[in-house]
């Protein structure tokens, strides 16, 4: 009796697992392929914008690690980068970028990168246990 119940339980367990796999065509054909929703002409522009965002993030993290950016400066710069990312998401809500939007995003990112350079070059240094000691 116990063996039959155990066999029936295993059968039900594996049968329901097999039906839950969802074989066949997906209900959401574009799921997992983010770029398929974007116009192919905009992909090059988005690649450039993503490279600029990556460069800005890298420079901010280097400034934090080296101690050349203070906590207040890094928070302000990261908030500015977040503002640019929100603007990009708003522009991409219609799945394409026009020339004005692309130009505005790249201009904002270039201004941010220049601001990061300026803040890293000024004479304020963060002194904490994570940054390297500087000789003044």
TrEMBL record:
Keywords: Signal. Residues 1-20 form the signal peptide. It comes from the Bacteria. The lineage of its organism: Bacteria, Pseudomonadati, Bacteroidota, Cytophagia, Cytophagales. Residues 25-46 are annotated as: Disordered. Residues 28-46 have a biased composition (Basic and acidic residues). This is Periplasmic heavy metal sensor.
């Amino acid at each position: 009796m116990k063996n039959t119940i155990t066999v029936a339980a295993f059968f039900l367990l594996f049968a329901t697992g097999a039906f839950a796999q969802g074989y066949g065509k997906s209900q959401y054909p574009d799921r997992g392929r983010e770029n398929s929703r974007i116009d192919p002409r905009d992909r090059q522009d988005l690649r450039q914008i993503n490279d600029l965002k990556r460069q800005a993030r890298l420079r901010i993290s280097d400034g934090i690690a080296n101690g050349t950016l203070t906590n207040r400066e890094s928070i302000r710069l990261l908030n500015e980068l977040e503002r640019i990312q929100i603007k990009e998401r708003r522009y991409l809500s219609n799945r394409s970028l026009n020339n004005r939007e692309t130009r505005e995003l790249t201009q904002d990112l270039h201004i941010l990168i220049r601001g990061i350079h300026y803040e890293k070059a000024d004479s304020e240094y963060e002194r904490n246990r994570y940054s390297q000691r500087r000789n003044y």
